[in-house]
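Key idea: predict the complex, not the pieces.
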Amino acid sequence: EVVMMQPPATLSVSPGEGATLSCRASQSVSSNLAWYQQKPGQAPRLLIYGASTRATGIPARFSGSGSGTEFTLTISSLQPEDFAVYYCQQYNNWPLTFGGGTKVEIK
Amino acid sequence: QVQLVQSGAEVKKPGASVTVSCRASGYSFASSDIDWVRQATGQGPEWMGWMNPNSGNTGYAQKFQGRVTMTRSTSISTAYMELSSLRSEDTAVYYCATGALGSSRRTFDFWGQGTLVTVSS
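Result:
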């Protein structure tokens, strides 16, 4: 099973600042990596797939990069609605696996 | 628009079984696999398995093999997930999800609203 790691568990950022979130895979997942945003009481929302392609309707301030085992989600200028938990998910190998998440909180 | 609507919250005793339903609308039900993902409070999502609504074929995570069964009714565009031999650790929100229509990538583009299953004596 591919283990997905997302340090740190919490990131404190001021509104308007940028944020860089990390995701590391225990083995290569090529570019088969997705990012999700989740707010309290809601289902996750797909942001990025293929490591760097924004899903439909996702603002340009969200960008993804990386391949193999190291991936990054960058939010260029945090808006109030961006404070949430972010998860990465690999879909290169069975079983599909998610990271433990990074909570982006208001500093 | 694609919609997945799940059944309501359940409370079960240890050892019992639970069935969660997921009614699809806004697209051709047979055209996209349905996956089931669960999430315990404060934890990351956990993938349980997939089902192809057209063929009925399934694939389960090894962790759930022998305890989970995914089925469907094509006449009412509804998928079902049954989990048996429940224990307290199965307390979680259970989601159905489907991917990008017409794509083979295994991402979760559309989600149900979630069903809370509580296992308690």
